[in-house]
Amino acid sequence: MATLEVHVVTPEREIWGGTAQMVIARGIEGELGILAGHAPVLIRLAIAPLRIQREDGTWEVIAVDGGFLHVTSGADGSRVDVLADGGELEAEVDRDAARALAEQLEQRLSTAEGQEELEAELARAKMRAELAAR
How many whole angstroms separate alpha carbon 42 and alpha carbon 49? Predict the structure, then answer.
């Protein structure tokens, strides 16, 4: 049986590593589902949740702050490497702090210069705050 080995890393740490049934990622051009045997691909990730279905059927959700996802496949199975700019496991997210930060950033955004940086920071905060809605 083909396997799907997954590694999610940031410059600071490895967030998650192990075998999985499926990975669902959001690239800048749309969502992508990956199963064992997937064709090789490299995509640029959006600021969005990354979903990993473990071998036991449970889901791991990781808040990913952009980066890249790379898939390779061979006779032994497939490997998914997520090289994220930043990220954290859903269980690590402080949703109240993320909501408060999102509100603060929305207020600053209306009057600030350098809005592109603030918009990216706001997107990261909103994505983490929305994990509570799951």
Answer: 18
Predicted TM-score (pTM) of this structure: 0.84
| Cα 64 to Cα 95: distance, rounded to the nearest angstrom | 15
- Please indicate, yes or no, whether residues 58 and 86 belong to a single structural domain of this protein: yes
Together in a domain, 62 and 126: no
Query: Looking at residue 91, what DSSP letter applies?
Result: G
Enclosing domain of residue 98: 94-133
Structural domains in the chain (count):
2
Average pLDDT per block of 10 residues along the chain, 134 residues long: 91 97 97 96 97 97 97 93 96 89 80 74 86 64
